[in-house]
Write a structure and sequence with these properties.
Layout: H1 14-18, H2 23-36, E1 42-43, H3 55-66, H4 79-88, E2 98-101, H5 104-115, E3 121-126, H6 130-138, E4 142-147, H7 158-164, E5 169-175, H8 187-198, E6 204-208, H9 222-225, E7 233-238, E8 251-254, H10 257-268, H11 276-287, H12 291-313, E9 327-328, H13 349-359, E10 362-363, E11 365-366, E12 376-379, H14 384-399
Parallel strand pairs: 1-10, 3-4, 3-5, 5-6, 6-7
Antiparallel strand pairs: 2-8, 7-8, 9-12, 11-12
Helix pairs in contact: 3-11, 4-11, 5-6, 5-10, 7-8, 12-14
The structure holds pyridoxal-5'-phosphate.
């Protein structure tokens, strides 16, 4: 056994004490332990495409290294990449409006660190991606979750938004297509939300559009149809999901220049510019052939349709059809209160997921991790054969509840 150094005094800051081990990490660790112990676990817990990074992107990274692009890059991102990103936005945007960061997650962290004071409120429709809550808490601001259940399509309505806004509201965080629900806001829904924002000039909108290219119907960037709100909009996007580049850690923000400058200042004192090699790779992804996006979308759609049908065929589960991303977020409410074959009662969604891990050997993430209990998230960015086997196991296990 290696030696572990343990501190003799407690060193954690107050801020760090709030950071908890995420439910998703807890589940991945349980999966790793069980697999190490020889159990055949199928995990549908991770949010990353199963495709490889496109070969031309890998070649571009290799060439960049051979050219010597291995030095500190500009903190805000290379001009070439920011120009390519600016071209993805409407209205001939200046590259000064763009920051490149180490993943979309760092864009979010930069934005919140740059703008949130203690007591500021961030409205986040629930279910939400778990990291939003953690980053907001880390900034000592207040998360204002607004529950948006399946009957609302897991989407925030203009009326609910209006009710949630207070003088302390700093941001509305919108994520479409969304993780974990896959909800895709329609143009009509987004324009109603924009109207509420027009009436509340102190509220900024952070539109996390990282799943933009995994949309099964029309996707519109927030900047596209609410250009008048551009001076208080931050778009977050990146190459992780669209181009299967999660490990390259490359994302970006598009927003007003002074916000981008402040975020760049924060990034400069934490990580500096994103990896020069990843920036060259992202440039190749954006400037290269885009047909793969459509091909991969077809594959995601097939898998979505399969999983939705299989889970709806299972007893006690209800699985809405998501409009985007690669997750389903079915309800397991009808399973709560039922008894497992070994006599335990399913008390909630977390107990339901524990039951499936024990009895079906399938790992899923309970809805409570995303601020909306009574559900679970299944990522279908996995091989069709694993999805078939997984859904079969889930249906058999649920069928054994009484
Ligand atoms: C909604 C959402 N935003 C942002 C991210 C982070 O993306 P990145 O890997 O580029 O940091 C994720 C990753 O799962 C996500 O689901």
């Amino acid at each position: 056994m290696p030696n572990t150094i343990q501190p003799t005094q407690h060193v954690k800051s107050r801020r760090a004490s709030s950071a908890q081990l995420s439910e998703i990490v807890r589940i991945s660790e349980a999966v790793r332990d069980r697999r190490a112990a020889g159990e055949d676990i199928l995990s549908f817990g991770t949010g990353e495409p199963d495709f490889p990074t496109p070969p031309h992107v890998i070649e571009a990274a290799h060439e960049a290294m051979l050219r010597g692009e291995t030095k500190y890059p500009p903190t805000q991102g290379t001009k070439e990449l920011r120009t390519a990103i600016a071209r993805t936005a409407p209205a001939n945007l200046d590259p000064e409006n763009v920051i490149v960061s180490t993943g979309a997650k760092q864009v979010l962290a930069n934005a919140f660190l740059a703008t949130l004071n203690p007591d500021d409120e961030v409205i986040v429709p629930a279910p939400y991606w778990t990291s939003y809550a953690d980053i907001i808490e880390f900034c000592e601001a207040t998360l204002v979750p607004v529950s948006c259940d399946a009957s609302a399509g897991f989407k925030l309505s203009a009326a609910r938004l209006s009710d949630a806004i207070t003088p302390k509201t700093k941001w509305l965080l919108l994520n479409s297509p969304g993780n974990p629900s896959g909800a895709l806001y329609s143009l009509q829904e987004l324009s109603e939300i924009a109207d509420v924002l027009r009436a509340n000039s102190h509220v900024w909108v952070l539109a996390d559009e990282i799943y933009e290219h995994i949309s099964y119907s029309i996707f519109a960037s927030f900047l596209n149809f609410a250009p008048d709100l551009a001076d208080r909009t931050l778009i977050v996007n990146g190459v992780s999901k669209a181009y299967a580049m999660t490990g390259w850690r490359l994302g970006w923000g598009i927003g007003p220049v002074d916000l981008i400058e402040t975020m760049t200042g924060i990034q400069g004192q934490s990580t500096s510019g994103a990896s020069s090699i990843s920036q060259a790779a992202a440039l190749a992804a954006l400037n290269g052939p885009q047909e793969l996006l459509a091909t991969r979308l077809v594959s995601f759609r097939e898998r979505r349709d399969f999983v939705v049908a299989a889970l709806n065929d299972a007893e006690l589960l209800e699985c809405p059809t998501p409009g985007g991303a690669f997750y389903v977020f079915p309800s397991c409410k009808a399973a709560v209160g039922k008894t497992t074959p070994d006599g335990t009662t399913i008390t909630d969604d977390a107990a339901f997921c524990d039951f499936l891990l024990d009895h079906a050997k399938v790992a899923l993430v309970p809805g409570r991790a995303f601020g909306l209990p009574g559900h679970f998230r299944l990522s279908y960015a996995y091989a069709k054969s694993d999805l078939e086997e997984g859904c079969k196991r889930i249906a058999a296990a649920v069928g054994g509840l009484y």
